[in-house]
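Write out the 3D structure for:
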Amino acid sequence: MTDKIIENNQVEIMGKIASQFTFSHQVFGEGFYMVDVLVKRLSDSEDRIPVMISERLVDVNEDYEGEYIHVMGQFRSYNRHEEKKNRLVLSVFAREVEFVEDDDENMKSNAIFLDGYICKPPVYRKTPLGREIADLLIAVNRPYGKSDYIPCICWGRNARYASAFQVGGHVLIWGRIQSREYVKKISEEETQKRTAYEISVSKLEYAD
């Protein structure tokens, strides 16, 4: 049962470690730490992806900044309460990690597969230049009755196709994790730069 559930959320990334390890939380005495990984896009820009790693997988006291790492795991979400409302926080939960050479082309640098369910109506729109976009929020089941809620963005023909999906619909999604910076208005005088994460969808299927 657990293996089947793990199969419905698969991530593989390879990139350069771009931060120190910072403590996140502890479960039954096992510490989990966050680290940022810079993953190259084909366009030569980069996505900065947060990765959660157990202290059992890597020595979190070492400085690995600048080294390349290959991570396999799942894309996880949790709600963090701030400013009187919940904020969806996303990261890659590492199940396997290995340090690699920068030029190892046999490994996928950024790939994700999700098998989940539409949990709010798709938002379809067009950019000023006429490009079609559809935003989806996918619920992916996890063991012990939990779910991860993962925002996805579709383009062009995929966006048109996804715009007709119904809430509760079962979908399969292939794509990549992307990061996007935006400015959050805190008050009239104060703004804050933040990073949002979503799945850029390359292929999707309606499963039911």
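The first strand starts at residue 9 and ends at 17.
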